[in-house]
Design a protein that fits this description.
Blueprint (H helix, E strand, L loop, with lengths): L1 H24 E4 L3 E7 L2 E6 L2 E4 L5 E7 L3 E11 L5 E12 L2 H6 L4 H18 L3 H6 L1 H16 L4 E12 L2 H43 L1 H17 L11 H31 L7
Antiparallel strand pairs: 1-4, 2-3, 2-5, 6-7, 7-8
Length: about 280
């Protein structure tokens, strides 16, 4: 009886130990994760997703998330190439492509990516002018992405995009840019106005040519002007008098004036021709 009890206890202990070993060897990782396995300090590789077994008590597993990480770079004060101080904020998008390298080659790949993003942002923007920074963001973003991705490649990290989120300018620079934009708009407005005046003058010249070739058209234009004035309910109406009506009268006045001048000239000549006798 005693031997039976001892046998049962031994079997129970063995089963319990086997269950403990089994449960300690089971590992489960999610679909978006990978488990990097170390056995006695030696890198075995990445496993997952799902359930798998590892050597119990002598192994260690580190989980690595494979999803895209959105990392906000803290605001950085940058001096551009044309000596303008700006504060820039950027966003880095990256994900892990090699979980074993992300664990074995760098202590903390998130912090390392953040630091390399800050230094690269200052270096690249410091080599650019303010106008280029404001107008060519896509070019600068691609350059930042290529440089950061080159540094993080050996860490098993792939940088997909770098976007400049915000550019904060000094107040004095904002006022100067506002004045520049206002002056540019005024210049464009004056150019458009001058072009309109030129086109209008060309059209008026063509209209005058057509009206001048047809006298009746000028009379119709006079009547149309009178109609427009009458609509305004004005108390005074200016009636345009055609030049053709008064031109004969002006010619007659010119002839009369010329005849009177000739007669006056003949009379003065006759008077000057009389003999002059000395007075006694």
């Amino acid at each position: 009886m005693d031997s039976t009890i001892i046998l049962v206890l031994v079997i129970s202990a063995v089963v319990l130990i086997l269950l403990i070993l089994l449960f300690s060897a089971i590992r489960v990782v999610q679909q978006y994760e990978r488990g990097v396995i170390f056995v006695l300090g030696r890198l075995i590789g990445a496993k997952g997703p799902g359930i798998f077994l590892v050597p119990p008590f002598i192994s260690r597993m580190a989980k690595v998330d494979l999803r895209i990480v959105t990392l906000t770079v803290p605001p950085q004060e940058v001096i551009t190439r044309d000596n303008v101080t700006v504060k820039v904020t950027a966003v880095i998008y990256f994900y892990v492509v090699d979980p074993a390298a992300a664990i074995a080659n760098v202590v903390n790949f998130l912090q390392a990516t953040t630091q390399i993003g800050q230094t690269t942002l200052r270096n690249v923007l410091g080599q650019s002018e303010l106008d280029e920074l404001l107008s060519q963001r896509n070019k600068i973003n691609r350059e930042l992405q290529a440089i950061i991705d080159e540094h993080t490649e050996r860490w098993g990290v792939k940088v997909t995009a770098v976007e400049i989120k915000d550019i904060e300018l000094p107040a004095t620079m904002q006022r100067a840019m506002a004045k520049q934009a206002e002056a540019e708009r005024e210049k464009r407005a004056k150019i458009i106005h001058a072009q309109g005046e030129l086109q209008a003058s060309n059209q008026l010249a063509q209209a005058a040519s057509v009206i001048g070739s047809q006298p009746a058209a000028l009379q119709l234009r006079y009547l149309q002007t009178l109609t427009e004035i009458a609509v305004e309910k004005n108390s005074t109406i200016i009636f345009p008098l055609p030049i053709d009506l008064i031109e004969p009268m002006m010619d007659l006045l010119h002839r009369e004036h010329a005849t009177a001048a000739n007669e006056q000239h003949d009379h003065d000549g006759a008077v000057s021709a009389l003999p002059v006798y000395p007075q006694r």
